[in-house]
Amino acid sequence: MSLLSRKYPWSKWQKHLVLAREPVLREFLPDTAVLKEETLIDFLSRYPVVFAKPSCGGGGRGVVRISVIEEGRVEIQTTETRVETEIPQAYAAVKSFLGPKQYIVQQGVSLIRIDDRPIDFRTLLLRPGRTWRYMGVMGKLAVRDQIVTNHCRGGSSLTFAEALKESRELQPEEIRELEKRIERLSRLIAAALNKRYPLVAELGLDIGIDEELKLWLIEANTRPQYKLFRDHDDPTLYRRIGAIIKTVRLPLA
Length: 253
Hints:
By secondary structure, the chain is of the alpha+beta class. Helix content is about 30%, strand content about 30%.
C-alpha cells in the first residue's frame, strides 16, 4: 500500500469506518455494511428501502435501489431499469447489475421531497491551509422517478432556503437554524476524516434531511463536483471555490 493510499480515503467503506468510530457522529450515519448476500437479506428484514453502491466512484454511477414492495418481494431499480423478484433471489438480481468491485449496502433514508421528488444537500469544505473553510450548501433535486439526486444525472440545483420553503414551508428563522446544524455537522465530519487522513483538503458532503428534520450523512466525497454552486445566492462563490480547489486538489494516483 502506497503512502498516498494510507493517507487518503479512496473508498466509501473506508470513510464510513473512520466516521463510525466517532461517538458524536454515529447517530448521523445510515446503517452501512459491505454488500454480501447475508448483509443484503439482513438489511431488507430491517429497512423498507436500501441502496447498493460501489465503494469507489461517484456521480451516482452504479447505484441500485432495493425496495420491499410486499412480504417476500422487492423491487430493484437502477438509473435505467427496474425489476421485481423474491427476496431470496434479490442478491443474485442485484449482482447482475453490478461490476466486480467492492460494493456497500446502506440503509435508505426517507428524504424530504418536492413534488414527490427527493432532495438532499451538498455542503462543500476546503482546507487551503490548516483550517477548514465552510463554503456553503446547495440542494440537489432528483429528476422525477430517478433514484439519485446527482447534478450530473439530471438533478437540479436549489438554494438551501428555496428547498426548505418548497419542501416543508419552514420560516426563515427555522431555515437558518437548520443550516447552522448542517454546518456544525459538516465541520465535525471534516475534522474526523482529517484526523485519520491528513492529506484530505476538500470535501463535498451529501447530507439528507428526513421527514422529522433529522440530518443524515449519505456520502462524503473527497474529489467533489461543485458546479451546482453556480446557482448559489452569492454570485462570486463559484469562482472563489474554483480558485481554492486549484491550490488543494491532489493529482489522481
